[in-house]
Amino acid sequence: AQKVTQAQTEISVVEKEDVTLDCVYETRDTTYYLFWYKQPPSGELVFLIRRNSFDEQNEISGRYSWNFQKSTSSFNFTITASQVVDSAVYFCALSGILDSSYKLIFGSGTRLLVRP
Amino acid sequence: GAVVSQHPSRVICKSGTSVKIECRSLDFQATTMFWYRQFPKKSLMLMATSNEGSKATYEQGVEKDKFLINHASLTLSTLTVTSAHPEDSSFYICSAEFRGGELFFGEGSRLTVL
Q1: Which of A43, A101, A105 is the closest to B107 by Cβ?
Q2: Residues in A touching B54 (Cβ below 8 Å)
Q3: Alpha carbon separation from A17 to A49, A63, A87 (Å, rounded)
Q4: Chain B residues lying within 8 Å of A54, measured CB to CB
Q5: Is A70 helix (H, G, I), strand (E, B) or coil?
Q6: First vs last C-alpha separation in chain A
Q7: What pLDDT, in 10s, does the model give residues B17-68?
């Protein structure tokens, strides 16, 4: 069975602090994808990143960085120098490849509050 | 990036009525779309996979007669909540598969059943 665990329900930081959102996953698939999405108060889901299981290189995009470690089944997300606009719920998600389609299994989400 | 649009964004209806939510891929063709449901302050739960030209595949525990899904074209999937009741009130989100693995989500539709 596939499962995604985001143990941090809510995190509160002061602007300009760095913050790391944890994500641990379980899957029996050898090929899979990991995702991070942002859901601001308006409700829409914003795609942040997709990583396939064969690519363990860390990725940096501006203030965002991701650390993928297969050995610990983790795909953590770090925001450097957080800003108030980063306040949102962040979801980590996992998909395998079933019949050439991609069903996402979401974690429970981490609510990030960045205070000015 | 690819755009997926949902309509309506908000709908309020009386108990017993049916509500249709549309999900459109605006600038690409999507053979597969997904429908998710999100309860307040909860995660997204996959309801069903919608395949163009064929019947939807429902997840365990989702009533297919209650949540009718039609994927009539490569750019449109619809979710109809039939005989809605207050417990069906939720945030419904669709996503469309783009370029083999990238998923883009609609803005979501908030359904309130009185």
Answers
A1: A43
A2: none
A3: 22, 11, 13
A4: none
A5: helix
A6: 41
A7: 999 999 999 888 888 899 999 988 888 999 999 888 888 999 999 999 999 9
